[in-house]
Amino acid sequence: MNQRTEFVLRAIETGNFRELCREYGISAKTGYKWRERFLQEGLKGMAELSRRPKSSPQGLAEAVVCEIVRLKEQHRHWGPRKLRKVYERLHLEVPSESSFKRVLERAGLVQERQLRARQKSGRLHSGRKAQSPNQVWTVDFKGWWQAGGSGRIEPLTVRDEYSRYVLELRALANARTQTVRACFERLFEAHGLPEAIRSDNGAPFASDTGVLGLSKLSAWWVALGIDLERGRPGCPQDNGAHERLHLDVEQELRGRDPVEQQAGFDEWRRIFNQERPHEALGMKCPAELYRKSERKYGGTPEDLEYKGMDSRRVAKWGSISLEDQRVFISGALAGWSVGLERCDDGRNGVWFGRLLLGHLDPTTLSFQRIETTAMDAK
Q1: Could you read off the pLDDT of 310-354 as tens digits, one per residue?
Q2: Is residue 373 within 8 Å of 126, Cβ to Cβ?
């Protein structure tokens, strides 16, 4: 800085400019540049200038930046990859993912993710990985919250595992069996029947005391020919993708006015299924992969039939009649028939649909529940 200042002061008065440049060890071009900057800006023109270009052909136009910010404001919990996919649907030229991330960071719209320590867990023995739509539906109740400070909301969520398509997101009046069953009747009429339904071990999906954990609701599913899958008690990670869905629901929908709650649920579900790209789907939307089941819902059958077995109707208190005696099986099966299959050891295998419930000893009239929860087919 001092040498430059000294040079330009002497350059104004010198009669041999090139000789002065050689004295300071600079080219005539540099000397002329320094002198011109001094004449235009004074001493501050002698400071080192930034080499950063004033403009870049790769820089984003203001309209593009505003559009990225607008999309983020619409979808506060979406990351740059999802937002870029949405932008791509609307425009021919699309900035890179890193550009989206940079714009969001500069706008202060990026929230650092809090990582929790991972815990080891086993895998479901009875579970299956869906390979096509309607192979497995997952269901759960989202933990309740106060909606607008004036009502309790506990949404029921139903999801197709393969396509991530949210079949239902509904704030039910209660979690009673008949209320949930009515919701599933509407789903089955609209989408057909799945091959299996995966749930946790809570009511109304399962029972702590029922044989094989059967509740009235899950017994109805079995009667319709739907297999049952459940996570291990106290292990929500066994249905982790559904739990992740609940996190999105709570972050984006909690606090809505109870009067407008269901309308908000319906709009959120529409955006989730039809507009929101999913990394696990190759940035496709669930609606692009989901299709209705080929298994049509024809209503609830009057009863179940068992080929080659004796049939016994379960009374309303949960027992069947054998040798003019009552043997308790399960209250969840009241109104349905079970099949009795003669075994080589003299006992009778007790079946409900395709589920082996246990064995009945005709001599002692005692029913021994089966220990495994495997879904054996008959």
Answers
A1: 999 999 999 999 888 999 999 999 999 999 999 988 899 999 999
A2: yes
| 260 vs 148: CA distance, rounded Å | 10
Average pLDDT along the chain: 83
User: Which amino acid is present at 313?
Assistant: R
With vertex at residue 346, the alpha carbon angle to CA 344 and CA 347, rounded to the nearest 5 degrees, is 105
Question: C-alpha distances in angstroms, 233 versus 144, 244, 359, 371?
Answer: 20, 18, 25, 16
Burial of 118 from C-beta contacts in 10 A (0-12 / 13-18 / 19+): exposed
Helices (H), 75-160: 80-90, 97-106
**pLDDT of the residue at 120:** 33
CA distance 135 to 131: 7
3-state secondary structure of 313: strand
> If DSSP codes are grouped into helix, strand and coil, which group holds residue 154?
coil
In terms of CATH, what superfamily is 136-289? Answer: Ribonuclease H-like superfamily/Ribonuclease H (3.30.420.10)
Residue closest to 302 by CA, chosen among 192, 224, 211, 228: 224
Q: How many CB atoms lie within 10 A of CB 211?
A: 22
pLDDT, tens digit, for every residue of 72-110?
Answer: 888 877 888 888 888 888 888 888 888 888 888 888 887
What phi and psi, each to the nearest 5 degrees, are found at residue 355? -100, 125
Please check whether residue 63 is in contact with residue 71, taking contact to mean a CB–CB distance below 8 angstroms.
no
Average pLDDT over residues 54-63: 69
Longest dimension (CA), the chain: 131
- Under DSSP, the state recorded for 363 is T
Q: Closest Cα partner for 68 from 20, 25, 104, 114?
A: 104
Bridge pairing between strands 310-313 and 337-342 = antiparallel
Residue 31: both structure tokens together: 């000397």
